[in-house]
Design goal:
mainly alpha; single chain
Length: 120
């Protein structure tokens, strides 16, 4: 269960950082928009962390965990970018996929690596 909690905690922290990158887009600097973006990014981070933590309980490979987190987070980020493109006509694929993929890779790797196994 520790791996799931690590994934969730990292998902929240890195989701906040991921959402905060929206500040670099001048059209999104309004407080209400920023809070919505950060909230959505935290939600994506939590889902990624939960999935990566559950995956890490079954599979014990750092590379597979990294790739799994990368894929899950990229798919979630792609879904958000697609919804924005359909509803607003704005192309934010790179702006959303790049930080989202990095978050997923970090969470996926960390859930495999942490916590250290106790040796008897």
């Amino acid at each position: 269960m520790k791996k799931v909690w690590i994934g969730l905690a990292l998902g929240v922290v890195l989701g906040i950082l991921d959402g905060s990158t929206a500040w670099f887009e001048p059209a999104e600097r309004e407080f209400g928009k920023m809070m919505g973006i950060i909230g959505g990014s935290v939600f994506k981070g939590v889902l990624t962390g939960l999935a990566a933590g559950l995956f890490a309980r079954k599979v014990h490979s750092e590379m597979k965990g990294l790739f799994f987190g990368l894929v899950i987070s990229s798919l979630l980020s792609w879904g958000v970018a697609y919804m924005i493109w359909v509803n607003e006509g704005k192309n934010y694929y790179v702006n959303l996929l790049l930080p989202g993929a990095i978050v997923g890779a970090i969470v996926g790797y960390a859930t495999q690596k942490l916590p250290k196994q106790q040796q008897a």
